[in-house]
Amino acid sequence: MTFQIKQEIASCGGKLMKLSHPSKKTGTEMEVNVYLPKQYFHKQDQSIPVLYYLSGLTCSPQNASEKAFWQPQADKYGFALVFPDTSPRGEGVPDDPEESWDFGISASFYVDATQEPYKKNYQMFSYIHDELPRELSQFFENKGNSKLDFVENVAITGHSMGGFGALSAFLKLYPERKYKSCSAFAPITFPSKVQWGQKAFGGYLGQEEEKWKPYDPGHLLKMTTNIGSDKILIHQGTGDPFYKNQLKPELLLEASKGTSWDGKINLNLVEGFDHSYYFVSTFVPEHAEFHAKNLGLI
Ligand SMILES: N[C@@H](CCC(=O)N[C@@H](CSC=O)C(=O)NCC(=O)O)C(=O)O
């Protein structure tokens, strides 16, 4: 299995690679964008770490590649970026029976579905955190002057549904500390408690709430122990139309009380910002610095 290079675009000091590959996990062709920072093009002594960015509902790998302005930050610190897709797509992939944008295609919630008809293709957790990093490592091995580390020295972030995906994966895989750091922009923080999450978890995982807990940051905080000084960085705009009914970061803080994550969630409520990429791009430099520190770049 390998990647097809759909497009290579010079961007900032590096290059954005638009790739696609057949995924065993989803049974579909998956698109993914990878930004190679300027450091990649000059021989490095150490492997270049990778930041994974998970996008929100309705997105493809293009939204953040075009509008989040991560690329100058990747060049500044020397990390690569991976922008995966938000769901499987294509012929035969089941979508939302209600034809809404909050479930189905481009709304996978990054879980491994257990329910019909979704379980065949919606294996996004395994795809993103296992298959994709392995495949990217193989593809980039022995290419270019520098090594890229897609597996070990990695961090994760995301926006909205993708913010949830980042928190969920960080905490779910925390015992092995797969991701060195996690941040999120306007994430869905406690999906079991809000309509978007209940619909998605119900559809992909079934109606039994117990089955939702292993993906829900609000529960995962209680199921995994912070081993030291790890912090989670979150920004949330107060002018975001989804803030009070779907995102609810205060619920996550409440859930962290009395756990090893108490005081470790750095929630920044930012006055007036909405849910758009104007908001995301404003705070990308702060998140980039946070991850660069945790990836040992500064
Ligand atoms: N189409 C919807 C709006 C959908 C939306 O706001 N999507 C966000 C993520 S929401 C949570 O996951 C997004 O990132 N959109 C892409 C973009 O480029 O802004 C509506 O009609 O309200």
Short description:
Helix content is 31%, strand content 22%. With 298 residues, the protein is α/β, with parallel strands linked by helices. Belongs to the esterase D family.
What strand line-up does the widest sheet have?
1-2-3-5-4-6-7-8-9
Q: How many DSSP helices? A: 9
* Large-scale geometry: globular
CATH architecture: 3-Layer(aba) Sandwich
Which ligands, by name, code or SMILES, are bound?
ligand LAXINWYW
What's the total number of strands? 9
Average predicted confidence as pLDDT: 97
The SSE string, one letter per element, is EEEEHHEHEHEHHEHHEH
Which stretches are low in confidence, meaning pLDDT under 50 for 5 or more residues running? none
Please state the CA-atom Rg, rounded to the nearest Å.
Answer: 18 Å
Keywords: Cytoplasm, Hydrolase, Serine esterase
Catalytic activity: S-formylglutathione + H2O = formate + glutathione + H(+)
Subcellular location: Cytoplasm
InterPro entries: AB_hydrolase_fold (IPR029058), Esterase-like (IPR000801), S-formylglutathione_hydrol (IPR014186)
